[in-house]
From TrEMBL:
Catalytic activity line of the entry: Hydrolysis of alkylated DNA, releasing 3-methyladenine, 3-methylguanine, 7-methylguanine and 7-methyladenine
Domain of life: Eukaryota
Species classification: Eukaryota, Viridiplantae, Streptophyta, Embryophyta, Tracheophyta
Protein task: Hydrolysis of the deoxyribose N-glycosidic bond to excise 3-methyladenine, and 7-methylguanine from the damaged DNA polymer formed by alkylation lesions.
Keywords: DNA damage, DNA repair, Hydrolase
Gene Ontology biological process terms, A to Z: base-excision repair
Family: Belongs to the DNA glycosylase MPG family.
Protein name: DNA-3-methyladenine glycosylase II
The keyword Hydrolase is assigned to this record: yes
Length: 121
C-alpha cells in the first residue's frame, strides 16, 4: 500500500492512497497487476495501487520530495472534490469513523469502493 506520512514521527498525519489513475507506464502497471485492461479495476484499491507501483517494504521511509524513484509532484488542481468517511476503520472511535477524511475527484472512474458514501462538501 501507499501511505504518505505528512508530519514528523509520532504525529498521526498520513494519507492512504486508495486509488489512482495511470498517467504513464500503463504496460508496466498491467504487467505488475497481471491484467491486460485499461479499466479502473487496475488501480482501485490500496493493495492494487501498491502492486501496480511495484511497492514493497523496501520503500518504507522513502522521501517523496526528492527526485528519483517514487515522488510526489504538483498537478492540476481538481475542480470538483467529493468527501466522505474513511473506509475499513470500524474499530476506531465513532468520531474517527464518521470523520469526512476521504477525498475523491467527482466524475473520475478511478475511485475505490464504496462510492455511495461520497458527496459534495
Amino acid at each position: 500500500m501507499l501511505n504518505v506520512v505528512a508530519d514528523k514521527e509520532g504525529v498521526g498525519a498520513a494519507v492512504l492512497i486508495r486509488a489512482c489513475a495511470p498517467m504513464a507506464g500503463l504496460e508496466t502497471i498491467q504487467q505488475r497487476r497481471g491484467q491486460k485492461t485499461e479499466k479502473p479495476v487496475l488501480l482501485t484499491g490500496p493493495g492494487k495501487v501498491g502492486q501496480a507501483l511495484g511497492l514493497s517494504t523496501e520503500w518504507s521511509n522513502h522521501p517523496l520530495y526528492t527526485p528519483g524513484g517514487l515522488e510526489l509532484l504538483d498537478g492540476p488542481r481538481p475542480e470538483n472534490i467529493l468527501i466522505g468517511p474513511r473506509v475499513g476503520i470500524e474499530y476506531a472511535s465513532p468520531e474517527d469513523v464518521n470523520a469526512l477524511w476521504r477525498f475523491a475527484i467527482a466524475g473520475s472512474p478511478w475511485v475505490s469502493a464504496p462510492r455511495n458514501t461520497l458527496r459534495q462538501p
